[in-house]
Amino acid sequence: MVQPLIRFAGAVTALCVLVACAATRPRGGEDEWQATLAVLATSDLHGNVLGFDYYRRREDPTVGFDRVATLVAQARARYADTLLVDNGDTIQGTPLADWQARVQPPACEDRLAIHVAMDHVGYDAGTLGNHEFNYGLPFLSQVAGVPFDDGQADCRGPGFPLLLSNLVHADDGRPLLPPRLLLERQLHARDAKGEVVRKPVRIGLVALAPPGIMKWDARHLAGRVRMVDALDATRGQVAALRADGADVVIALVHGGLDTRPWDGTLDNPGWHVAASGLVDAMVLGHEHLRFPDPHSARPAYGDLPGVDAGAGRVHGVPAVMPSFWGRALGVIELSLRFRDGRWQVDRDDSRSLLLPHGATDASGVTPDAQVAGLVAQAHAGTLAWLEEPIAETRIAMTTFFADVGDTSALDVVNRAQVDYLRERIDADWPQLRGLPLLSAAAPFKTGSAGPDDYTQVAAGTLAIRHAADLYLYPNTLVAVKVTGAQLKAWLEQSAKRFNRIDPDVATPQPLVDTGVAGYNFDVIDGVRYVIDLTREAGARIVDLRHADGRAVDPQEWLLVATNNYRAGNGQSFGFDASALVVDTQAGNRDVLIDWLRERRVVDGRDPRSAPPWRFAPLPPQANVTFSTRAGLAAEPSFGPHRLQRVADTDDGRAVYRLHVGPE
């Protein structure tokens, strides 16, 4: 494992000595030395310490850091020189992570389970993603082991340094974390005769978080920290690293690739960082994709200019995005040549890849058994917490068919949010009384991570784990005040989940645009609306009415219960930050759990009350296909939406044909 030479600017005298040594021109044909530095990378682990599905209480062999640990060991056996880094979104995302953040936080002298596992493997550096901020700055300060303010305790964090280049304190501009890192590594260098010697290389690191955190977690960050333009931050920190003698500079970019013109607000800046020519390699993340992916017919970013999705290069810069949840380990094989007295990256001879080779997840990788032992106590505590009973349900609640009209898993969330807000408004926001109160909920799990990636709550006893399955994220309940026109724009954005359907084409047309995540498909209850799939995106919502049948006036005001993430990203959904009028500070999942405990029994939607939305009728010849998990009903129906199973696929899914008749 690499030991940090410096974390931040400082230690000038010692650094100058080292720079002088590294800059001395070698003798005896040293210009012919070659070496390979394998940069090993994880990203978006999201608290998946073990390959375990806490919602189903069973093993999940496709994911887990315990399998990544095995891949790291294999990579270290293969490569003589390695550097192991993590790209953020590490501490949030599983019930285990929530248990440690909300139920049983670690003591100041202890570490998070994910950090215990990572320290077992031995990381060289890491950074923060957007989800690190979900639990607030005090918690993050503790588990990162970095006091953000003078009054905070200096607690134990992970055994590797964390850095972040584009986030500073709002008051004085001090970096929240060290903005750059300089490490020294002894390489196994080979000369033209094949002889191997040890030669030092100096590796600089910068790291970027998405600026969207200032919207998504405004309740934690507003007035406390501020973002710095990612390119400006990279430019300044890389210049400092080069001045300090860095031979190689690697960017940890918690974001993907976005080719839109640079304006400082892009959450996926990797394309622009590479185009700047400032860095020698990039680790990407945030978008939960595989890059490179040479075995895919449609590799991620394959259609972008300057991107070689097969070799894993962006504007010639070697890059990797190692999937998510521990499904893969990213590897950048940096080919280094000693020229003009220093190491330089040979981009043409460098390459990127994902391990295990040719696989889409970690299936077939034997987990490192020591990881389970190291986190056994946290794992057991999480399991006990999740089994606490809270209510009974007489209906199953799933998202298998959420894209075709099944709102069973969303109804209970919307009902809980409306009931909670109605009581709070009467007591705390009386000026909002009388406004129509609606609620928005989205299906968080719709199969994007595999055929088991759906909310699945069977009829019977409801426990904490079922509530966590129904509401996945640690969001907080807020309300926005919007006009009828803005409400329609919101629904239009949600309807982009679907492809446009040509009603006259008899060949299969997929219903869902897989590029639009299910968590952006808001179903808004309290109104009724029709989605016309034959229309272009932005003009699909027709017949928007209140539940009592009145047409929604574009000028009237309405109140919509939602979550802090949606409110913070409202510009994409037709409203801005000024629409936020209620911030309850209550967790959406906590509201749901309390509501379930109070009701004790969950019934289905009142049969006299229709679901909020439906598709406009399609002619019989329209061949619309929809995919979900295999092994479900052959011909389910949801109102006017009737499905007919037509095929099963090799990846555990079933393909249905959708028929939409009149209501």
From TrEMBL:
Domain Calcineurin-like phosphoesterase: 39-288
SUPFAM superfamilies linked to this entry: 5'-nucleotidase (syn. UDP-sugar hydrolase), C-terminal domain (SSF55816), Metallo-dependent phosphatases (SSF56300)
Pfam families to which the protein is assigned, alphabetical: 5_nucleotid_C (PF02872), Metallophos (PF00149)
A GO term from the CC aspect: outer membrane-bounded periplasmic space
GO terms of molecular function: hydrolase activity, acting on ester bonds; metal ion binding; nucleotide binding
Region forming the signal peptide: 1-22
5'-Nucleotidase C-terminal domain boundaries: 404-573
GO biological process, one term: nucleotide catabolic process
Keywords: Hydrolase, Nucleotide-binding, Signal
Family label: Belongs to the 5'-nucleotidase family.
Name under which the protein is recorded: 2',3'-cyclic-nucleotide 2'-phosphodiesterase/3'-nucleotidase
